[in-house]
Specification:
By secondary structure, the chain is of the alpha/beta class. 40% of the residues lie in helices and 14% in strands. Bound molecules: phosphoenolpyruvate (PEP).
């Protein structure tokens, strides 16, 4: 089922008091759109964030998880651990995980499998580098990222997947894909899904755009027919800005 979602990826920002303060500010905002609102605080603050938003229209989600069920993976967090504190959704494949922690398509395919096997919903991120776009290779890169990490799945698995197209050159750079560039890529992603799984999967897939979305550009980006919402980094750290984006629908 296609939904409108605005998810804030807090990355490695905000300790516990800062997390509590930002959540308190978020609760003071008024939501005037039908978008689902999600926030992804750091692991150490997930439980507190989950508890303090229990009765609010905000879903607390995780930024990452490991592909193994448990075991000797020092420093890692499992799907079961996330589930045990009430988390239902996990971001996988963020470009920072790919770039700094060597998460390739094969690792991400295993993470996706593990998350889905534990009934976690996955927000699967992908996107091309600037060099790919300059070489007009962006569609091929995005298609291969999706195919390599997701196309071993049955069609039924996609009801628990949200896609997030995040061109790497637009993340944290202040440079946003134009609404037309976002629309063109989202349409291409839907076609790629349609070619493999048919329109039942393609038409119902929620596809988010991420990359320097701000209150000033959200409305235009979200107005495009194949853009179903946003994954928001920097602007998710200020409650007013985040809700201005949520309310841009
Ligand atoms: C992100 O990290 O997913 C992101 C989109 O960041 P920003 O909005 O800061 O570009």
């Amino acid at each position: 089922m296609r939904k409108n979602i605005v998810a804030g990826n807090w990355k490695m920002n905000n300790d516990l008091p800062q997390t509590e303060a930002l959540i308190s500010d978020l609760k003071k905002q008024t939501k005037t759109s039908n978008a689902e609102v999600m926030i992804a605080p750091a692991f150490t603050n997930l439980w507190q964030a989950f508890e303090t938003t229990r009765h609010d229209d905000i879903e607390v989600i995780a930024q990452n998880m490991h592909f193994a069920t448990n075991g000797a993976y020092t420093g890692e967090v499992s799907a079961d651990m996330l589930k045990s504190i009430g988390i239902q959704t996990v971001i996988l494949g963020h470009s920072e995980r790919r770039a700094y922690f060597n998460e390739d398509d094969a690792i991400l395919a295993k993470k996706v499998d593990q998350a889905l096997s534990k009934d976690l919903r996955v927000i699967f991120c992908f996107g091309e580098e600037l060099a790919d776009r300059k070489a007009a290779n962006h569609e091929a890169v995005v298609a291969s990222q999706i195919q390599n990490a997701l196309f071993h799945l049955d069609a039924s698995a996609f009801k628990n997947i949200v896609l997030a197209y995040e061109p790497v050159w637009a993340i944290g750079t202040g440079e946003t894909a134009s609404p037309e560039q976002a629309q063109d890529m989202h349409k291409f992603i839907r076609k790629t899904l349609n070619d493999k799984y048919g329109n039942q999967v393609a038409d119902h897939m929620t596809i988010l755009y991420g990359g320097s979305v701000k209150p000033t550009n959200a409305k235009e980006i979200f107005s495009k027919p194949d853009v179903d919402g946003g994954l928001i980094g920097g602007a998710a750290l200020k409650a007013e800005d985040f809700y201005a984006i949520v309310n841009a629908f």
